[in-house]
Amino acid sequence: MKLYIKYMVSNRCKLAVKEELRRLGLHFILVDLGEIEIMENITPEQKDELRAALLNSGLELMDDKRAVLIEKIKNAIIEMVHHTDEMIKVNFSDYLSEKLNHDYTYLANLFSEIQGTTIEQFVIHHKIERIKELIIYDELNITEIAWKMNYSSVAHLSNQFKKVTGLTPSHFKQLKVKRRSPIEEVGNVVEHNSVT
């Protein structure tokens, strides 16, 4: 039986879900970003208990098919931007269409309707958050970061970074306190000219 979980965006979330499943005596086949597959069919009581346990961990069990698809879109983007060390050399629209088995126009329209922002803006906000992380780690220079994140040039990266954060990458690097946002909050509300 497959179940879908909102806000499940990191390995720590996966560990918390596995622990709750074990505690409830449920056997899982798969625990991945945003979804789990368990061997048993669960009773409504077990589902309510799992729902309550997940809420205590900041996660949410989902039933609505459209909400599940939105969460799959978000998780596919998060996985590509934050959890892949390979360079992002893929067209996101093709990637999402193939991964989710839906026409990109349908996905984009649904996402905009439900989220109030576009998939493109969501991707940009996540790329900027990842760039902040790479700047803070200080292992790559800005040219290498631009290449890794599949920007056509350093100028393109810098312009997009400044548009989203209000700062240039070099100014962000000089800040004493570098602020980042938790992954599950990135792109949910479109922010303009604010340091996040």
Describe the protein.
A four-stranded antiparallel sheet has the order 2-3-1-4, with helices on both faces. The chain has 196 residues and is α+β, with helices and mostly antiparallel strands. It folds into two domains: 2-63, Alpha-Beta Plaits; 68-185, Arc Repressor Mutant, subunit A, CATH 1.10.10.60. It is globular and about 55 Å long. It has helices at residues 11-23, 44-56, 65-82, 92-100, 104-115, 119-137, 142-148, 154-165, 169-174, and strands spanning 2-6, 28-32, 35-38, 60-62.
Helix content: 55-70%
Number of helices: 9
Low-confidence stretches: 190-196
The SSE string, one letter per element, is EHEEHEHHHHHHH
Q: What portion of residues belong to β-strands? A: 5-15%
Q: Given the C-alpha coordinates, what overall shape results?
A: globular
Question: What does this entry show, briefly?
Answer:
The protein is an alpha+beta fold and 196 residues long. Helices cover 56% and strands 9% of the residues.
